[in-house]
Amino acid sequence: MSKPLEGVKVIELANFIAAASAGRFMADLGADVIKIEAPKGDPLRYTAPSEGRPLDWLENTTWELENANKRCASLNMKTPEGMEAFHKLLASADVLITNWRVQALQKLNLDYESLKERYPKLVYAICTGYGEKGPDRDLPGFDFTAFFARGGYLHSLHQASDRPQNVVPGLGDHNVGMNLAAGILAALYHAKLTGEGEKVETSLFETAIYNMGMMVQASNYDGAARNYPIDARNAPTPTNNCFKTKDGRYIQLCTPDYNMYYERVMRAIGREDLIGNEVYFPILTCQQNGKTQEVYDIVMAEFAKYDAAEMERRLTENDIAFGLAQSWNEILQDKQAEANDCFYDMTFRSGNTRRLVRLPVKFENMGTPEYHRGPDVGEHGREVLKEIGYTDEQVDAMLASQALYIREQK
């Protein structure tokens, strides 16, 4: 079966993760995504040491995650020839994705206002750190800063007695990338129907605020949301918490309606004697009596009597939502993830086989997308330019003048 985006051409003028992940999603769905990369390579190619991986051009798991199934042309857009080639690519494209800062785009006349009249059907998609307006619009933005810190994660989601939680790369970026992809697809549908292009914008900061929306809104009121960070023992719903088992594992429960789940939790932990206890139930009575900490302590004490496997069995029998806190290495071997085709085992040019993560959206009739490795710097430059009318002699001339670069593959 044909893929949903076959025939769609995307030019990706972006580095690092967020915007690139939107391009990866479209590439998986059949779009021809052409990444425009500087000769020295996207900085994402060099992040291995911070992730604990070997720095190896032939084996870069992060690069594959964000850039599989794309092609790459390396244009020196500071040269007239490079800029001319870029505009020829835009003239044949349906979508431009970028995460360059606005002032850099304006300097090269590649901002939306400069392009919308020249390419009226183009969907122009931009991802920034903090949004295109406001006093901080020109600040550099990464998910560590614009998403985790400015967006409320670091301040709120840790125990009150501890320093903020550790952060990991890509979490905020992937959120933003999928939001950007959703906007692109809506604008692309409109463009195909009407011939009218559109500008789509989102940012790490805006996405974090949306993700935190329930608690941001709850902070309108004098209540728990205004008191974060808190210690788990002081949570307003004591069973809606993470508890430690006998063998040192943590299991997160989700009991958003305490009254609905109270009896189930007491059965699961073997405290049927507390069912119907008028001091601990219902939740408003428990809170008014100042007994929420007692309930937390009771549940924690009972969890400590069982190992994780036994506790998981008890929770399952009582139909309580829970999740064992897994390590990343455990996730790689998770049978539920395997059953849902979350992984792809790639054999790299280094000769090593590594397990990679697939994108989380699936289509029944299309089937699982192929997984082609991410491109080398400029790898497809010659074929991309020949597709828009360049001759081999013209491509050779651009290579000689360094308006075009193709990294020698090894």
Notable features of this structure?
alpha/beta; formyl-coa transferase, domain 3; Rossmann fold; three-stranded antiparallel sheet; single chain; 410 residues
Topology:
Blueprint: E1 9-13, H1 18-28, E2 32-36, H2 48-51, H3 61-67, E3 71-75, H4 80-91, E4 95-98, H5 102-107, H6 112-115, E5 123-128, H7 143-149, H8 153-156, H9 171-194, E6 198-203, H10 204-211, H11 213-218, E7 242-244, E8 250-254, H12 258-268, H13 283-288, H14 292-303, H15 308-317, E9 321-324, H16 328-332, H17 335-339, E10 343-347, E11 353-357, H18 381-387, H19 392-401, E12 404-405
Parallel strand pairs: 1-2, 1-4, 2-3, 4-5, 5-6
Antiparallel strand pairs: 3-12, 7-8, 8-9, 10-11
Helix pairs in contact: 1-9, 7-10, 12-15
Explain briefly what this protein structure is:
With 410 residues, this protein is of the alpha/beta class. The protein has 2 domains: 9-211 and 341-405, Rossmann fold (3-Layer(aba) Sandwich); 231-244 and 250-324, 2-Layer Sandwich (formyl-coa transferase, domain 3), CATH 3.30.1540. 39% of the residues lie in helices and 13% in strands.
Tally the helices: 19
Strand order of the largest sheet: 6-5-4-1-2-3-12
- Based on CA atoms alone, the radius of gyration comes out at 26 Å
Largest sheet: 7 strands, mixed
Helix content range: 25-40%
> Between the first and last Cα atoms, what is the distance in angstroms?
35 Å
Tally of structural domains: 2
Q: What coarse outline follows from CA principal-axis ratios?
A: elongated
Structure, explained:
By secondary structure, the protein is an alpha/beta fold. The chain has two domains: 9-211 and 341-405, 3-Layer(aba) Sandwich (Rossmann fold), CATH 3.40.50; 231-244 and 250-324, formyl-coa transferase, domain 3. The chain contains 19 helices and twelve strands. Strands 6-5-4-1-2-3-12 form a seven-stranded mixed beta sheet, with helices on both faces. A three-stranded antiparallel beta sheet has the order 7-8-9, with helices on one face. It has a two-stranded antiparallel sheet with strand order 10-11. Helix 7 (143-149) runs parallel beside helix 10 (204-211) and helix 12 (258-268) packs across helix 15. The mean pLDDT is 95.
